Amino acid sequence: MRYWVGGATGFLGSHVVKCLRDAGHEVVLASRSGGEVAGIPVSRVDVLDADRVAESARGTDGAFLVTGKVSRDAADAEELHRTNVLGTRSALAGIGKAGVRRVVYVSTSGTIAISDRADHVATEADPPPLEHLSRWPYYRTKYHAELEALEANLPPAFEVVIVNPSLLLGPGDTRGSSTGDVRKFLEGEILATPRGGLALVDVRDAAAATAAAMEHGAAGERYILSAANLSLAAFFDRLARVSGVPAPRLALPRSPVLSAELTRLFGRAVRAIGGEPPMDATSVEMGQHYWYCDAGKAMHALGFMPRDVTDTLRDTVEDLVSRGVAHPRAGLYAEGAVPAAGRSGTDLLSP
């Protein structure tokens, strides 16, 4: 088959390209910045230009829309809306204009799985967590982009399948869009552990499932892609064991409001002496919530089989260090670090 990949130079997009190529498919690549992926030229295409998208995608058998902007900064709200919502609407219109009849759109598990409760594990059947989505522009705009995708889904003339990966980790995040917190951990910038929990997935496994969604995903359906649910304390403990860098000894208060206020006060004090605080209040607030989710639907329908998260964390750390992105403050791979583990699709830890 011949597939169009928008956002091909991104973290997940580049791995989707590899999966498609490894399966013997031809690819037509596009991104806002252009460039190349694995020696393949990437055309410079702005998804806000539907005609340019149509020109780029014409003659392909299917499209992967892996575009978007990632930011936790509230000041980026307008750009996030323009890129994630209006860009998705425009790109889908262009893909349809090109005569392509099937699209896999990449969203995030954060449009489904945000909770105040550690005992809640979200599935695709959950209602949108609107109260939480309203706080953070990135997740709010991805939710509205999903609505655009679902509105465009008009089978059999035009089919849209949505995948919802959790936090993407693994090698190859050249822009630091997903692995920034791992770098901060390695460099000792995370001073206290938030009380919440996260869900994560290896980018290579998410890419394989995204590619599989083209053939096996049902039009109009969403598929969560996640490997494990971990409290932040457990996540930092695993990072400590694979890297030799100690986990933070302090824990933040349980109250998201109090922890965010303490972070703001600390940041103000650091800036007063000419420094830059390592953690922003938004990241801390997010870390006080639970992002737990269940990937059972994707495992059944798409053949999604995530590897053990210890392998993912080790590969993430190795990649960041080998590329000179992270400079661990303690001996990397210190004595006692966790040995390599085998692959497993059952590393779904209880909260």
Structural account:
The chain is an alpha/beta fold and 351 residues long. The protein has a domain at 2-170 and 200-229 and 291-307: 3-Layer(aba) Sandwich (Rossmann fold), CATH 3.40.50.720. The protein contains twelve helices and 13 strands. The strands form three sheets. The protein has an eight-stranded mixed sheet with strand order 3-4-2-1-5-6-7-11, sandwiched between helices. The protein has a three-stranded mixed sheet with strand order 8-10-12. It has a two-stranded parallel ribbon with strand order 9-13. It is globular. The N and C termini lie far apart (42 Å). The model is unreliable at 333-351 (pLDDT under 50).
Helical content stands at: 25-40%
CATH superfamily (homologous) name of the domain at 2-170 and 200-229 and 291-307: NAD(P)-binding Rossmann-like Domain
Overall structural class, as computed from helix and strand content, comes to alpha/beta
Unreliable stretches (pLDDT < 50, length at least 5) are 333-351
Give the overall average pLDDT. Answer: 89
Second-tier CATH architecture of the domain at 2-170 and 200-229 and 291-307: 3-Layer(aba) Sandwich
- Physical arrangement of strands within the biggest beta sheet: 3-4-2-1-5-6-7-11
Q: Which helices and strands occur, and which strands form pairs?
A:
Elements: E1 2-6, H1 11-22, E2 26-31, E3 35-37, E4 40-44, H2 50-57, E5 62-65, H3 77-97, E6 102-106, H4 130-133, H5 137-152, E7 159-165, E8 167-169, H6 180-186, E9 192-193, E10 197-202, H7 203-216, E11 222-225, E12 228-231, H8 232-243, E13 250-251, H9 256-272, H10 281-287, H11 296-302, H12 309-322
Parallel strand pairs: 1-2, 1-5, 2-4, 5-6, 6-7, 7-11, 8-10, 9-13
Antiparallel strand pairs: 3-4, 10-12
